[in-house]
Amino acid sequence: MRVRHISVAERRARLALRHRLADGAGAASPEEVADSLVALHATDPATVHLAVGARLNDPAKAVPETERALYEERTLVRMHGMRHTVFVFPAELTAVVHASTGIAVAARARAALIKDMAKAGAPDAAWLKEVEEATLAALARRGQATAAELAEDEPRLREQFVYAAGKGYEGVHTVSSRLLRVLGVEGKVVRGRPLGSWTSSQFRWALAPAHPELDVAEAQCELLRRWLASCGPASEADLKWWTGWPVTQVRRALTAMGAEEVSLDEGTGYVVAGDADPVPEPPRPWAALLPCLDPTAMGWQQRDWYLPPRLRPALFDRSGNVGPTVWWNGRVVGAWAQRPDGEIVWRLLDTEDVGREAETAIAEQAVRLRSLLGPARVTPRFRTPAEKELAAR
After folding, report:
1. Phi-psi region of 387 (alpha: psi -120 to 50; beta: other; left: phi over 0)
2. In terms of Cα–Cα distance, which of 304, 316, 299, 319 is closest to 82?
3. What is the pLDDT of residues 304-330, one digit of tens each?
4. Which residues are within 8 A (CB) of 67 and not within 5 positions of it... i.e. 6 or more apart?
5. How would residue 141 be classed by pLDDT, with cut points 50, 70 and 90?
6. Which terminus of the chain is more solvent-facing, meaning fewer CB atoms within 10 Å of its CB: N or C?
7. What end-to-end distance do the CA atoms of the chain give, in Å?
8. How many CB atoms lie within 10 A of CB 26?
9. How far apart are CA 209 and CA 285, in angstroms?
10. How far apart are CA 220 and CA 214, in angstroms?
């Protein structure tokens, strides 16, 4: 049987339609956005709202509707997921993420905490278990609470221990910060409403919603199926990177779900079974201003088909985090930033096949973004050379 080749142009068309960026492909709610993208990066809290706003039919609803979904109706949940990273997921996907990814990460995180405490001469695992149980009980009473508030009920959370004593990166860790992170990856607590506005990175904690315990292999198939439906085709390297799983688990899930093999410019790729047929082109060229760590910009490890390698030094920080990006018709062509007075400024870094139509459309997206932000000021948590330069001018 002949393997179908999916071109770069078709991959860009799939991205535009399935990531709700093309004209006419927008979403009515944050839940629709999250369902289409599987996961929204949430390491930078503003990213969630801006990623939603870039895809909503009415961007003015991005902040209030995302707040509703996250903190009132809990249809979206902020929790640790793939690669030990904080994401926002549809609530119905939390059990899948926990079983497919969280369990293994959590076991390593708890073991590392116990090991670090033992090296520092801190109390043992039994003591830590007592503190954990008291902390969860306090959180159940309070509903939501900061680490400082929880420490009022369980003072042992304030205790500190030295991490990596004698090494160049030696530091002092507080039991509360490490324990709450472990409880997060174990699926026992989630991040609740932030202190301050929607741009704040200081969060309250809340008990995680109850979810069924799923079979690990079945959960991995389901997560991969959903992601390929949104982001396929993708290479094995993309899948391994996005999930954070060993390649053996990626291959096992691909086989179990009956993924279909296709040909890409960089080699072999995979799609959900039956999804190799051509897709229609978007009705017209489209522009978008996407925030730092946007799930589309960070969706694949192999990015040459939508992000020219020559642009990477300006658009990524040293840890591989992408900054705010300007898109034209399926590829990254520039960067944007918000200045202290609120103005949205942007610059084309790649002018290949970018003409007046593109510049007009990008300028319209900048006006749309400025309206979404209102009085808010957003500085990316991970700053990149292009963003810093634009913001300072």
Report:
1. alpha
2. 299
3. 999 999 999 999 999 999 999 999 999
4. 198
5. very high
6. N
7. 57
8. 16
9. 41
10. 10
User: DSSP letter at 56?
Assistant: B
Contact 203, 14 (CB under 8 A): no
Of 382, 275, 272, 267, which Cα lies nearest the Cα of 321?
Answer: 382
Q: What is the DSSP letter of 122?
A: -
**In-domain check, residue 165:** yes
Quick check: 379 pLDDT over 80? yes
CA dihedral 143, 146, 152, 155 (to 10 degrees): 110
Residue 97 lies in a domain: yes
- For 27, phi then psi, to 5°, come to -105, 160
For 41-99, how does the pLDDT look when each residue is reduced to its tens digit (9 = 90+)? 999 999 999 999 999 999 999 999 999 999 999 999 998 888 888 999 999 999 999 99
pLDDT tens for 5-38 read 999 999 999 999 999 999 999 999 999 999 999 9
**pLDDT exceeds 70 at position 1:** no
- Full residue range of the structural domain in which residue 119 is found: 92-207
| Residues paired with residue 145 on neighbouring β-strands, in sequence order | 205
Domain assignment present for residue 272? The answer is no
The domain total for the chain is 1
**Closest listed residue to residue 226, CA positions, set 62, 101, 71, 72:** 101
**One-letter amino acid of 2:** R
Q: Is residue 150 part of a domain?
A: yes
Asked if residues 372 and 360 have their Cβ atoms less than 8 Å apart, the reply is: no
pLDDT given at position 262: 97
